[in-house]
Amino acid sequence: MILVPVIDISCGQVVHATGGSRDAYPPLQSGLSRSSDPLDVVSGLVRLHRFGCLYVADLDAISGRPPQSAVVRRLAGHFPGLRLWLDAGIDTLESLEHWQQHDACIPVIGSETLTDPAILDILPGSGSLILSLDFRNDRLLGPSDAIVSPQYWPRRVIVMSLDHVGQNRGPDLSRLRRLRRAAPAVELYAAALEADKAHSIKAVFATQNETATGVASDIPGIRAALDAANHPAMLFVDGVSSIGSVEFRMDDWGVDLAVAGSQKGFMLPAGLSMLGVSQRALEASKTSTMNRCYFDFVDMMKVNDDGYFPYTPPTQLFHGLKASLARLEAEGLENVFARHYRLAEGVRR
């Protein structure tokens, strides 16, 4: 999972986008910054988390007005560690070549402003360009070839529903599913948390390390995105193949529920799972209406107080777990993580 913060700039300031009515966007007011100045806003984002990239929408350029080139150059100069995904109303090969000269920028080709069909010829499979499929009221803005022909798509595609922006409507999930089926290898990006103004999303679930591929998710980045959106959703983490193997900091990263498995980092046969639960998640479980029997926090804790379990425990695995924990403690977790990183790099290289 990759988290990409977004800012919309117009007339030298960051604005609050709502519903795609760009001329009516007010200056941004956020607890992350003292003002709507782009440097101030991005400084707040960077303090929150070490993001690797930032999506910048130059609304003036997109609307046909003079671009905010000076603002973009200031951002690139002040934040050299950020790659800027820049949507600057690129419509021709000439305007694309202009932004390709800036090493800090990855040009975003918005279908809304695309007028030169020659750009479609250089998009397929590109890792240095991003295509934004811009929709308004379920209608694609721009050339139809950009949507009906996935062979024109680069490696990364943004699915933008302009009329959903800031309207508590979230992404168009049915459209995302159709696009995923059409191009399963393409990375798709869409907004979700910021659009959920009613806070209907109760929890965000992420797999820290995908077992089959070794692809890792940025767990502290997800927490940072939740905080930046001022969203109360809890953070649940599948750490079956990561906890005990790579760095995981439940409290520091604001994780509310984490599950680990005996068969990975704990070096045991399958059959035992461990669950870490925050106080917030415990409180939420008291008001949950979902029926459950096998694992109820209250039943588990009540019996644990007497040193036992509400069902027959896998005693042999507990003996193995004791030995595994002693081995991890003797080597030191930092050394374990460094060893795993070294071996992984050996495979990757």
In short:
The protein is α/β, with parallel strands linked by helices and 349 residues long.
Model description:
With 349 residues, the chain is α/β, with parallel strands linked by helices. 32% of the residues lie in helices and 18% in strands. The chain contains twelve helices and 13 strands. The protein has helices at residues 38-48, 59-62, 69-78, 93-100, 118-122, 145-148, 173-182, 219-228, 279-287, 297-304, 315-331, 333-348; strands spanning 6-10, 13-15, 53-58, 83-87, 105-110, 130-136, 139-140, 156-161, 187-189, 203-207, 234-238, 257-261, 273-277. The strands form two sheets. Strands 1, 2, 3, 4, 5, 6, 7, 8 and 9 form a nine-stranded mixed β-sheet that branches. A hairpin with a 2-residue loop joins strand 1 and strand 2 (13-15). The longest helix is centred in the C-terminal third of the chain and has 17 residues, at 315-331. The radius of gyration is 23 Å and the shape is elongated. The relative contact order is 0.07. The mean pLDDT is 86.
How would you characterize the largest beta sheet? 9 strands, mixed
Structural class per helix/strand content? alpha/beta
Counted by DSSP, the helix tally is 12
Q: How large, in whole angstroms, is the Cα Rg? A: 23 Å
List the defining traits of the structure above.
349 residues, 12 helices, 13 strands, alpha/beta
Layout of helices and strands:
Layout: E1 6-10, E2 13-15, H1 38-48, E3 53-58, H2 59-62, H3 69-78, E4 83-87, H4 93-100, E5 105-110, H5 118-122, E6 130-136, E7 139-140, H6 145-148, E8 156-161, H7 173-182, E9 187-189, E10 203-207, H8 219-228, E11 234-238, E12 257-261, E13 273-277, H9 279-287, H10 297-304, H11 315-331, H12 333-348
Parallel strand pairs: 1-3, 3-4, 4-5, 5-6, 6-8, 8-9, 10-11, 11-12
Antiparallel strand pairs: 1-2, 6-7, 12-13
